[in-house]
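Course exercise 7: structure representation. Students receive a sequence record and must write out the corresponding structure in C-alpha cell form. The form below is the worked example handed out in class, using Sulfurtransferase-like selenium metabolism protein YedF (205 residues). Read each field label carefully; the graders check that inputs and outputs are placed in the correct fields and that the protein name is recorded exactly as given.

STUDENT ID: A-19
EXERCISE PROTEIN: Sulfurtransferase-like selenium metabolism protein YedF
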Amino acid sequence: MDNTIQIDVRDLPCPEPVVKAKQALLGVNEYALKLHTYEIIGNTPSSKENLSRFLKAEGFEFDIGFGRDGQFMIVLKGKAEKEAKQGKDKIIPKMMLFKSDKVGEGELGGMLANGFLKSLLHADVLPQKILFINRGVLLTTDNKEVNNDEIVEVLKELEKQGVEIYSCGSCLSYFALTERLKVGVIGNALESIQNMLTSDSLISL
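STUDENT ANSWER:
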C-alpha cells in the first residue's frame, strides 16, 4: 500500500506554492508523518526557497532532492509541535496602508496586490487594521477600473477574523464611489491619523 502523499506546486505563481503546501499540511504532526510520506514537488528556485523557509518556520524537518529541468522534491522527515494561534489571538497592533490598487506598477503591480492580500488569509498573525487611500479604494468598491471580486472576498473573510477595514472617505468621494463600498467602513482623516499614530507600526504598500 502506497502511503505517499504528494503536494504538486509546479508552475504555480507566488504565493500559491506556500499557500497550497500550508493547506495540505494543516494538522499534520509527528504521528501523521510516521503513517505517511509527504512529498512536495516544485520546479522554480523561488518556490524552493519560500517553501524551505515556511517549513522551517512550522517546525518541519525535511530533505531536498533535485531532478531534471529544475525540478525538486522536498520530503518531510519530522516535526516539532508549534502552538497555533486562532481567531482574534492572531491580531497584532499593526496597520497596513494601501495607497494604490497596485503594489508597484502595471499588470505585475495588480498581481502583487492580489497576492499579498490573499496571503494574509494564511498568515499566522494579522494586522489590526487595513486602510485604503487614494486609488487603493478601487480595491474595496464596485468600479469599472479594477476587477476586485477575489480581493473583496478576501477582505470580507479578514473582517470575520477581526481585521478592521477602512476606506478613505475623501478618496471615495473623489472617485464618486461613496455609495459603492463593498467591504469595510468609510474612514475619515482624523480617524486615519489616529489609527496610524496608535499602531505599533505602519506597513505601507
